[in-house]
Write a structure and sequence with these properties.
By secondary structure, the protein is α/β, with parallel strands linked by helices. It has 10 helices and 7 strands. It has a 5-stranded parallel beta sheet with strand order 1-7-6-2-3, sandwiched between helices. A two-stranded antiparallel ribbon has the order 4-5.
């Protein structure tokens, strides 16, 4: 009876389509789970994500779980993650992608997972980095370390979603800094983010991480924009 009352006043809805969830569904409904545009890049050895960074920064491997389309399910999902406080979405997507990466040999040499950081002011306002749970779950699946105290966001910049495409290219390496470089020296890093658009943010983060000695960098994102 208590459960029914909770569902009446606080109904569980799908974070991708907003329909009501059944008792056996969690975070997203079965229909959305089957209709989400998965990429399978890491299974097919597809280099779509890697091509974004050709000639810009050296990347070992790169993948994204989903394809981002305007007004699509993935946009709704990421909006709920970033702006509606539903941090469990990142955990859900991280567990999903982490399991898939653990089944591929290309990501078996990852030593540490590092999330793209938020500036401290935005972190204080939002209460969490939307990429942290995503990264933690991937690290758990790969049985490797997770570090949030290496890459730091120094400058509070406008949200990428609302910036013009050309303006994103002006994101400078100076927006980020490296600390505790000894934690990553000589290691294969998996840098994780929510969405790849132009790749400017990941490029800037990668340039900073490569200031540490003998590091290799791979990329994993929740989604990539078409």
């Amino acid at each position: 009876m208590i459960k029914n009352l909770l569902n009446l006043f606080f109904p569980k809805i799908c974070y991708a389509c907003s329909d009501l969830l059944n008792d056996n569904e969690l975070h997203i409904c079965t229909s959305c789970r089957h209709q989400l545009p998965v990429t399978n890049f890491h299974f097919d050895e597809d280099k779509t994500v890697e091509k974004v960074f050709y000639g810009r920064v050296k990347i070992e491997k790169a993948t994204a779980l989903l394809k981002f389309q305007k007004k699509g399910r993935v946009q709704h999902l990421l909006h709920n993650l970033k702006y509606k406080g539903h941090e469990t979405i990142g955990q859900f997507l991280g567990a999903w992608l982490g399991q898939e990466l653990s089944d591929t040999k290309d990501y078996g040499t990852i030593d540490v997972v590092i999330p793209v950081p938020l500036h401290k002011n935005k972190l204080r306002k939002r209460g969490y980095n939307q990429v942290s749970k995503f990264g933690e779950e991937i690290a758990n699946a790969l049985e490797t370390d997770f570090e949030e105290n290496v890459l730091v966001k120094k400058t509070a910049t406008a949200t990428q979603v609302f910036k013009k495409r050309f303006a994103r290219w002006h994101d400078s390496d100076e927006n980020f800094s490296l600390q505790n470089a000894d934690l990553i020296s000589g290691k294969h890093i998996l840098l994780v983010d929510d969405i790849i658009t132009t790749g400017a943010t990941i490029e800037a983060c990668s340039n900073i991480l490569q200031k540490a000695k003998n590091v290799k960098i791979s990329i994993a994102a929740m989604a990539i924009a078409e």
